[in-house]
Specification:
CATH architecture of the largest domain: Sandwich
Order of helices and strands: HHHHHEEEEEEHEEEEEEE
CATH superfamily of the largest domain: Aromatic compound dioxygenase
Strand content: 15-25%
Helix content: 10-25%
CATH class of the largest domain: Mainly Beta
CATH topology of the largest domain: Protocatechuate 3,4-Dioxygenase, subunit A
Low-confidence stretches: none
Largest sheet: 6 strands, mixed
Structural class: alpha/beta
Bound molecules: benzoic acid, fe (iii) ion
């Protein structure tokens, strides 16, 4: 097309593909161009606004390091990460939720009943539950990779005061599919706001808070891996998570318990708890992986 106009530019773009373009890439690029062009038309995008948009991307590039990915954060606050997650989740089983940037590889393996709290500040919580299949049968040998913030709202990778692996642990379920440990009550925290995403949130009148949560990655042979989070039902940000991670079935309840009710055995803290604590029972259901055979 020689005479490219605002009316024919989208079709012109669609005609530029080489014949041997990967079909899936073609589908994605066609759709991207159609929606981008429609967006510019619908908003009557000015040069200044277009440059401002590019500047967000430029700044994201400048601040991104292997430890801190501003592009993922941008995708998170735009709702794109959660949407992609939901599009690709099975209908059955526990819902997935965002991974976030604070997961650490090779967390320490821990025995059932381990204590993640140690001397750290915070309210004591006993977390337990089972990993089940969609028929409600326990899954033995499932691994649960669990991580959370300390009581100051920081993950270990953000906080020089914490040990590298504090509040990170890997558990393996026994025959009954059960997992159990003690930790501190997770707290609300903000996503990083010192980059262009923080500026964008501010400019659009949005807060940067996430409801408190516990992260899980659960893996078991023959099942789809599940990346998810669970949130308490009394959290003030439950209905306004800035990264859109909350789903109804990921909401749990803290049951306040007297010190005497702490189990006498099975926990590192058994017979050592002399204060009231909170208890959470949360089962997670995995779906079978799709066989490629
Ligand atoms: C998190 O839950 O760790 C998280 C998720 C998305 C953005 C920032 C943090
Ligand atoms: Fe988190």
């Amino acid at each position: 097309m020689r005479n490219v106009t605002s009316d024919n530019i989208t079709d012109t773009f669609l005609n530029y593909f080489g014949e041997d373009t990967d079909p899936r890439l073609k589908t994605i690029m066609e759709s991207l161009a159609k929606h981008l062009h429609a967006f510019a038309r619908e908003t009557n995008l000015t040069h200044e606004e277009w440059q401002k948009g590019l500047d967000v991307v430029r700044q994201a590039g400048k601040i991104t390091t292997p430890e801190r990915d501003e592009f993922v954060l941008l995708s998170d606050v735009l709702g794109l990460s959660s949407l992609v997650d939901m599009i690709n989740s099975p209908d059955k089983g526990t819902s997935s939720s965002v991974l976030g940037p604070f997961h650490i590889s090779n967390p320490p393996k821990m025995e059932m009943g381990a204590d993640l709290k140690g001397d750290n500040e915070g309210e004591l919580v006993l977390v337990t539950g089972r990993v089940l299949d969609t028929d409600g049968k326990p899954i033995a040998g499932a691994t649960l990779d669990i991580w959370q913030t300390a009581a100051n709202g920081l993950y270990s990778s953000q906080d020089p005061e914490q040990d590298t692996y504090s509040f990170h642990a890997l558990f393996t379920t026994a025959e009954d599919g059960r997992y159990a440990f003690t930790t501190v009550k997770p707290v609300v925290y903000t996503v990083p706001t010192d980059g262009p995403v923080g500026e964008l949130l501010k400019a659009t009148g949005r807060h940067p808070w996430r409801p408190s949560h516990l992260h899980y990655i659960i893996k078991a042979e023959g099942f789809r891996s599940l990346v998810t989070e669970v949130f308490p039902d009394d959290d003030p940000y439950l209905d306004q998570d800035t990264v859109f991670g909350v789903r109804d079935d990921l909401v749990m309840h803290y049951l306040p318990q007297p010190a005497e009710s702490f189990p006498d055995q099975g926990f590192v803290l058994s017979r050592k708890v002399d204060q009231a604590y909170l208890r959470v029972d949360f089962d997670l259901t995995l779906t079978k992986s799709v066989s490629t055979a």
